[in-house]
Amino acid sequence: MRHRVAFATREYFNANGFWEIETPILTKSTPEGARDYLVPSRVHPGEFYALPQSPQIFKQILMIAGTDRYFQITRCFRDEDLRADRQPEFTQIDVEISFASMELVFGLIEPLVARIFREIDREVVPPFRRMPYAEAMATYGSDKPDLRCGLEIKELSDAFRASEFRVFTKILGEGGVIRGIAVPGGNKYTRSQIDVLGDVARQIGFSGLIWARPGEPPSSSVKALTEGELRKAFGYEGCPILLAPKARPRTIEPVRKFKPCSKRDEPDVKARSTNRRPRR
Question: Is the pLDDT of residue 212 over 50?
């Protein structure tokens, strides 16, 4: 599989006028996002080479030399702690173009992605969906949203602007926002599970978590809106609704952190009970 993907990549770039360039592994340390791996020099005691975190450090030299379109399938090294999307070394496809524009990059990379997916018997059809940063953050709370989860964040500030609920009126009066999500299948959540989500919301910076469930009497904070109006605002039928007021409207990322995406993400009541402080 790896061989087929690499071979298809080389064929594609060669057909589009790119050269494949190899750059040194033993280089000079440059400021990057992580620490460098260092290799001591035998012939220069006390001095070190650095393994490259990314191959772009030679881009300027190659461009000035007339290599205006080149690519590399190259190893990168970053001395940092392991995380879900981080590892000490990895291979990346690096593409460099002189006088590049956004449309030029999209027009080049999208067909490449389609070509690579055909190697694993999957068909994707460009052009791909393009989403502005502001829309992604406002709707999903992330600049790299997983669209499979759904659970779009809805803006409800205008709907609650005339509310008599003091918490909401104070936040809106200070320039804050009220956003919420409707959770399909969340009717089975117990009150304890919803309380867990409220704890999570406060831990990540929200004032709290207000909820409403179809068929149940609304809490004092959502009496200003009827059940029909809430459903219309969210576009869901028969789903519990979570409302999160936030004093800083630009901080939308925390909304994503407590959105349940699958059965694995259902609120864990045991986790909440173990985090409580013991009574004296």
Answer: yes
pLDDT tens digits, one per residue of 65-115: 999 999 999 999 999 888 877 889 999 999 999 999 999 999 999 999 999
Task: List, in order, residues 6 or more apart from 15 with CB less than 8 Å away.
Answer: none
Cα–Cα distances in Å, from 49 out to 30, 43, 46, 137?
11, 11, 11, 40
Q: What is the DSSP string of 115-173?
A: HHHHTTT----SSPP---HHHHHHHHSSSS--TTS----EE-TTTTTT---HHHHHHHH
Cα→Cα distances 258→74, 203, 265, Å: 37, 10, 9
Can you tell me which residue has the tokens 């809490």?
A: 219
Tens digit of each residue's pLDDT (9 = 90 or more) over 220-255: 556 555 666 666 666 655 555 666 655 555 444 445
How many angstroms separate the Cα of 118 from the Cα of each of 18, 80, 107, 128, 129? 21, 34, 18, 16, 19
Q: Take residue 41 and report the two structure tokens written for it.
A: 């020099």
Helices (H), the chain: 2-15, 59-64, 102-118, 133-140, 166-173, 191-203, 227-234, 253-257, 269-274
C-alpha to C-alpha distance for 115 and 8, rounded to whole angstroms? 7
Give the start-end residues of each E strand in 1-88: 19-20, 38-40, 48-50, 69-77
DSSP state letter for 27? B
pTM: 0.70
Helix (H, G, I), strand (E, B) or coil at 252: coil
pLDDT digits (tens, 9 = 90+) for 135-171: 988 888 888 888 887 778 888 888 777 777 777 778 8
